[in-house]
Design brief:
- By secondary structure, this protein is α+β, with helices and mostly antiparallel strands.
- It is built from 13 helices and 16 strands.
- α4 links the parallel β3 and β4 (126-130).
- The structure holds zinc ion (ZN).
- Zinc ion (ZN) binds at residues 89, 100-101, 134, 195.
Length: 417
């Protein structure tokens, strides 16, 4: 009881965390107030170097694995125990913001700094991690290095991912000096990641903390609709096989499938190619993409059935042919029940308004959940805007999320008996 109340008074230093965020935002700052630190560029190296320097100043030892993931370790009383880990990523989109990823990394550092200020010992070591190439913007796919850590991809695959100019992750890690020696993957006692929501729900509902219970599964499809090109003048309306008319009805179908499954389902057509794309030719072929998201695999199955049968009906009515292919899928994630309730309890006892929520985006925590008890903490961002240079958050939200993180980490790291 005594221990709980001692822990109950602990707070991070919000001002120091904010200052560090603003300092890191100078590395790769863009004109519109955002950040461009693409993975494994010189700017990414600069950001990493700054993080490493801050961690060393905070007394941490640094280890780097073969995927360039950085682990800053604050010793525990019992060094034989696996670490409680927290962190996120420092790489950004080309027009990224100051908070996506970097908040999770620097909130972890702030937890370490605060524990140092208080001379607070933990039983387990604590590690703050920077995962390489989370965004996948330069080297697809996203979250590749936490994926290797969790055994989803093998090391060979991870190191051989290429950017658009053919340079690999392995080569670029060597070049910037972050090709480490450590084996990728090790026991983790628990993993927590704090992140901005990247959506509008928390701000709209005036909640400070999102207790993330699940992450959406994702399925991607490519659909080809084939009709027949012909002249826009001489071809009567009732004789046409217009692939774009079919595709338009299919886009509407996808939207209706999403609306029927709302609020949990998301359904999007984001890309569409029309052939021959000429103003006086009836389109003979259209290719488009579908992105389905839902936290339940069975529902994803049913969305898929609706898509396949719906496009066939539309095609038949217009004498078109269709081909549909699922090209990518990513299973839904349910985070660890104990970690979820630790986060919820921490928000509650700190007096922050909170709600349970589902992550619509992928995060490193999704892969970590395969190898360690894991959960996530969300804080609002202004207008729900992210992957954008105007991405912003209020200092009090940033402080709140880090305070919840501190509690959660301590709950798992334990105090020496
Ligand atoms: Zn992120």
């Amino acid at each position: 009881m005594e221990e709980t109340s001692a822990r109950g008074n602990l707070r991070i230093n919000g001002e120091r965390l904010w200052d560090s965020l603003m300092e890191m935002a100078k590395v790769g700052a863009t004109d519109k107030g955002g950040n461009c630190r693409l993975a494994l560029t010189d700017l990414d190296r600069e950001g990493r170097d700054l993080f490493v320097r801050w961690c060393e100043e905070a007394g941490c030892t640094i280890r780097i694995d073969k995927m360039g993931n950085i682990f800053a370790r604050r010793e525990g009383r019992n060094e034989a125990l696996p670490p409680v880990m927290t962190g996120s990523h420092l790489d950004t989109q080309p027009t990224g913001g100051r908070f996506d990823g970097v908040y999770g990394v620097l909130a972890g550092l702030e937890v370490v700094r605060s524990l140092n200020d208080l001379n607070y010992e933990t039983e387990h070591p604590i590690e703050v991690v920077v995962w390489t190439n989370e965004e996948g913007s330069r080297f697809p796919p996203a979250m590749v290095s936490s994926g290797v850590f969790a055994g989803v991809f093998d090391l060979e695959y991870g190191l051989s991912r290429q950017d658009s100019e053919g340079r690999t992750i392995g080569e670029e890690l060597e070049r910037i000096g972050y090709a480490g020696e450590e084996v990728v993957g090790k026991p983790v006692h628990a993993f927590f990641e704090v992140h901005i929501e990247q959506g509008p729900i928390l701000e709209a509902e005036e909640k400070t903390v999102g207790v993330v219970t699940d992450a959406h599964g994702v399925r991607w499809y490519e659909i080809a609709v084939t009709g027949q090109e012909s002249h826009a003048g001489p071809t009567p309306m009732d004789r046409r096989r217009d692939a774009l008319v079919g595709a338009a009805r299919m886009v509407d179908l996808v939207n209706r499938i999403g609306l029927e499954g709302a609020p949990s389902a998301c359904a999007t057509v984001g890309m569409l190619d029309v052939y021959p794309n000429s103003r006086n030719v009836i389109p003979g072929r259209v290719n488009f993409t579908v992105d389905f998201r839902h936290p339940d695999e069975e529902v994803l199955d049913s969305l898929e059935r609706k898509l396949y049968s719906g496009i066939e009906q539309i095609a038949a009515a217009l004498s078109l042919e269709t081909q549909a292919e699922r090209i990518f899928c990513y299973a839904p994630v349910h985070f660890d029940d104990e970690c979820i309730s630790i986060v919820r309890q921490a928000a509650e006892s700190l007096g922050y308004s909170h709600r349970d929520m589902i992550s619509g985006a992928g995060h490193d925590a999704c892969y970590l959940s395969k190898v360690a008890p894991t959960s996530m903490i969300f804080v609002p961002c202004i207008g729900g805007i992210s992957h954008n240079e105007i991405e912003d958050a209020k200092p009090e939200w940033i402080t709140a999320g880090a305070n919840v993180l501190l509690r959660a980490v301590l709950e798992k790291a334990g105090r020496p008996a």
